[in-house]
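A common beginner's mistake is to predict each chain separately and then try to dock the pieces by hand. The better habit, illustrated here, is to supply every component at once so that their relative placement is modeled jointly.
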Amino acid sequence: MDFFPLYNSLRVAAISTAVAFFAGIAAAYYIAKTPRIVKGILDCILTLPMVLPPTVVGFFLLKTIGPFGPVGAPVLELFGGRLVMVWYSAVFATTIVAFPLMYRTVRGALESFDENLLYSGQTLGLSNTYLFWRVVLPNCKQGILAGTVLTFARALGEYGATTMVTGYIPGRTATISTTVYQLWREGNDALAYKWVAINLVISAVVLIAVNLLESRYAQPENAARDALREDALREESVRDGALR
Amino acid sequence: MKSIKTMIKTVAFIAALSLVCGSFLIAAPAFAKELSVFAAASLTESLTRIAEEYKKIAPEIEIVYNFDSSGTLKTQIEQGAECDIFLSAAQKQMNELDIESDPKINTKRLDFIKKGTRFNIVSNKVVLIVPKDRNTKGIGDFKDVVTDKVSLVALGNSDVPVGQYAEEIYEHLGLWDTLNRMSRITFCSNVKEVVSQVGVGAADCGVVYSTDAAAAAKSVEIAAKAPAGSHRPIVYPAAVMKSTRLPVEAAAFADFLRSEEGARIFAQFGFERPAK
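With all components supplied together, the output reads:
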C-alpha cells in the first residue's frame, strides 16, 4: 500500500499549523491594540476564508498563484518554479483556510485575559516582550492550544481548496482526503476504507494528546502569578543581599 | 407592554404569510412536469441548447440536467438517484446498468434500463489541448507528454470515459506505464475539470473531446488529434430509465434527441452522427 498520502497530509498539516500558529498569535495580539473601526475591518477580512466555501477560496487561489495569475506568473518567470500542482500548493490552501481558526481562538483568549496581571508586571518595570512571552501567552495557553488543535484538524481535513490547486498526482500531491475521493470514484472501496481508518486513528491520537496537555495546563493563572512572584522574590533577595 | 404585543402580532402575521407563500412555492413544481436527465459533462452546451428548443415544442416539460462524468452519474443512479434519461460518454457505464449486457461487464447484474429504449446518439473525437496562445514549448503530439516539453498532463481518472479513452491511446502508443512511473499525470474527476486545469495553465496539456475544446476555445486550443485506431470508437449511448415516473414524456424527449432537429443541434457543437 502506498503510504505517500499519509506522509503528504501530515507534512502539509504540520507546516500550515506552524505558520498559522505564529501568524494567528501575532495578528490577534497586534489587532487587539488597534482602534475599533480598524479592528472590525481587519477582523472581517481575516475571518473571511473560514466563512467562504473552500472551493471559492481554491478558485481565488488558483487564479492568483496559477501560472497566468498576478502572483504565479512573476514567480514562474523569476524562479522557474510553479506554485500550483506541487505538494506545497496544499500548504497555501490549508494555511489560508485554517488561519482564521487560530486567529479567532487566540483573540478570544486574549480578550478574556486579566489585564491586572499585565499592569502589575508593568509596575515591576518589565518589558513588553517579557510580559508577552512570560505573562500573556502562558495565561492564554488553553485558548492557544485549542486554536492549534482546530487548525491542525482543519488543515488535515482540507479538501475543496486543496484539490483545486494541487490536483491529484499520485506520489506527488495526493493527500488523504483527495485519495479517498479518487478511490471512491474508481470503485476501490476497500482501500478507501483503509484510509478512512488511518485518518480516524491520527485524529484520535492528536485529540488524546491534546487532552493530556490541557489537563497539565489546567491553571494558567497560577503559572503567570508564580513567574511574577519569583521575580519579585529574586529582586528582594538581591536587595537584601546588597543591604547586608 | 403594548409595543411588545404589537411586535408579537407582527411576527405571527409574517410567519403565517410566509407559510402560505412557502406552501405555494413547494406546490408549484407539481404543476410543471420535470424530466431529470443525467448526461455526460461533455454534452453540457449542446443539451442546454436542445432543452431551449424543446421548450418551444413542449412548454409544460421542465428539463432538469445533472452534468458530470458518466462514471459519477452511473454511481448516482445505482445508489437510487431519481433519473429519467441517462446519456453516457461511453458504452461501459451504460453497460454496467444494462441487464442485457455481458455479465463480465455488468458484474453486479444491475437492471436500470428500460427495455428497448437504448440507442446511440452521437459520436465524438479525442484531442490533446494546450492553453490558448501559450504553447511556448511547441507541444504538437500525444507522444510529447513523455518528453521535456511537458511537465504535467491532465487526464480524466479511470471512472471518466475520456480518461479511459486517454488510457487506451497511451496503451496503444506504449507510453502508459512510463507516464505513470514519471508521476506526470494529474487525474481529474470529469472532462470539464481537465479543460479548466489546462485553461488556467495548471497543466501543460490535457486530453479531452474535440467538442469540449471547441466549447472552451477562449482558453484552450487543440495541439494534436488522437492517432487513428488508437482507441475504441467514441459512441455516446442514451436510454430511458426503468424507474422513470414520466415514461411517455421521457420517450418523447428521447425521440427529439434522435430527430433531425436534435442531430442538427449536436452537429452545431461538433458532434457527429454515430456509425450505427
